Amino acid sequence: MSESKTSVSGSGSYLEIGEYWDQHEVTEESKPVEFEVDVRSSSVYFPLDRALAEKVRSAASAHGVSAETLLNLWIQQRVSEESRQDDPPANSG
Predict the structure, then answer these.
(1) Helices (H), the chain
(2) Most buried one in 16, 23, 47, 92, CB count within 10 A?
(3) Which domain holds residue 64?
(4) What are 12-32's pLDDT values in tens digits?
(5) Count of domains in the chain?
């Protein structure tokens, strides 16, 4: 351990740190804090037929990815294709 002391115990060695915590509880050193946590998920779930879900799992396994990853890739590709079909062709002159 370096020459510096730990912030809580003031110890300069691992042995001293161990001796300190043998005689103290972490709650003695803690201070109340307040914080907010946003627990909203960034995922949206859609029901999927059980038989279709098994096929997706099998395909995902064959590709070496999770079913969630494979579904996201497939849906991104399809949405991209759909948006290209909806876009009017650019004027060429």
Answers:
(1) 14-23, 26-29, 50-63, 67-86
(2) 16
(3) 50-86
(4) 888 988 898 899 888 877 788
(5) 2
